[in-house]
Write a structure and sequence with these properties.
Structural class of chain A: alpha/beta
Order of helices and strands of chain A: HHEHEHEHHEHEHEEHEHH
Shape of chain A: globular
Oligomer: homodimer
Largest sheet of chain A: 8 strands, parallel, barrel
Strand order of the largest sheet of chain A: 1-2-3-4-5-6-7-8
Number of helices of chain A: 11
Radius of gyration of chain A: 17 Å
Strand content of chain A: 5-15%
């Protein structure tokens, strides 16, 4: 490119700055796999989830699940998912969007049928209940005895989202006060310059448009190169593609090229 | 009381105005059982949930569950809960606090292990994703083929809640635009005068205080008589009482007396 690009930190450099073991691991995976792609596994069965994870595993740094939308959940399936995450090198992100008071989310996170804290490296929460939700989830993470990371949903991609203005500002404040456990945001715009925080953007698709239920899409280039977010979350653009492996590869390259252009480097 | 009390509509009268079959049923149950008490069943097993439902069933109009915090969830347990709801006369309210885009919540509501739409007469959602969340849940309710009602979480009882000001106003707007399916609010203050909307308030306890994880408590009298809310949601004040039957009875009388005082009638 001809215009000068401002200095950006590499993912490896950011891994060094991070206070959280999971965030460190994620940055390293991104670097080694040349991927800032998270696939949103919006499928309805564990079987489909495993198949999808096998197909897209080589291209992603993160697999985003809705474990409570699977008709045939089983702990065996979760074990298989964990093995795939190890062998193909990606982390598991349960997109639970916790939204309750601390005492409740602690139980929802660690207990129930799903035992999310046991297997999901990353989960997320709405900041709407106030800081108690972070304390509750932190207690749950500690209870699990494992390294865990939390993202706050600071903005949403859907039409008419109320996660704007002062709401988003408060989310950022809550994250900063809990850095170490809160490692980033689900957002549409870059919210903080502190390089330890990871910005992930859902609603990413190569073709613009909506889904008739309020979802609105943006392109990988727009999200990574223009808005300077870190990770693109792609759902239906990959899961509903004729060839999901090819689609995952295409999005991986699109996301990584956009990152390189930000670093001022040439394309892959 | 000596001071004149403004005219209030009875629950029966409000049942007539409601556009939603579940809200009508709830108002009628409240009238016949003289109860505006909802118990928050914050327990960790299905067995405890059933036991609690049997104990408090005669005193409540609504049982609020966190089905995803039970370690031994079973559909048989849900069937037993449904039978108790029929025999003791209370409705089931799954406090799921949905918080995702329309396409996702539709699946979370109808599918997964819990099949919430199948058995929960009422559920709730955060308005944060915008109106698409209501459309998605409405689709799910239609898919279930059953009468269902939705509450919006317009305010929260926890410290530092972001559900305030314009956020709450937007929630009210979304509810009004979807009256018929949205039948009320989880809130701390009365938000609309339209008598078809039911205002429910969590964080109610006869003793003031907090829980160390951000929860803040208010008394039944304060909530019903002063703030003019409709239903008190009581959790630990009943579930952690030495005698839960006696506690349920005490809260039922406290809530109903506060309602009567609002109607300008004498106590029970």
């Amino acid at each position: 490119t001809s215009s000068p690009v401002p200095k950006e930190m590499t993912w490896s450099a950011r891994a060094e700055l991070s206070q959280n073991a999971i965030a460190k691991k994620l940055f390293h995976l991104m670097e080694s796999k040349k991927s800032n792609l998270c696939v949103a596994a919006d499928v309805s069965s564990m079987k489909e989830l495993i198949t999808l994870a096998k197909e897209v595993g080589p291209y992603i740094c993160l697999l985003k699940t809705h474990i409570d939308a699977l008709d045939d959940f089983s702990l065996d399936g979760v074990r298989e998912l964990e093995e795939l995450s190890q062998s193909a090198g990606f982390l598991l992100f349960e997109d639970r969007k916790f939204g309750d008071i601390g005492a409740t989310v602690m139980n929802q996170y660690t207990s129930g049928v799903y035992h999310i804290a046991e297997w999901a490296h990353i989960t997320n929460a709405h900041p709407v209940p106030g800081p108690g939700i972070i304390s509750g989830l932190k207690k749950g993470a500690d209870k699990s005895g494992k390294d865990r990371a939390l993202l706050l949903v600071a903005e949403m991609s859907s039409e008419g989202s109320l996660a704007v203005g002062p709401y988003t500002k408060e989310a950022v404040k809550m994250a900063k006060e809990n850095a170490g456990f809160v490692t980033g945001f689900i957002a549409q715009n870059k919210l903080v310059d502190d390089p330890q925080f990871i910005h992930m953007t859902p609603g990413v698709k190569l073709e613009k448009g909506g889904d008739g239920l309020g979802q609105q899409y943006n392109s990988p280039k727009d999200v990574i190169a223009e808005r300077k977010m870190d990770i693109i979350i792609v759902g239906r653009g990959i899961t509903q593609a004729q060839d999901r492996v090819e689609a995952a590869s295409t999005y991986q390259r699109a996301g990584y090229d956009a990152y390189l252009s930000r670093l001022g480097k040439s394309k892959t």
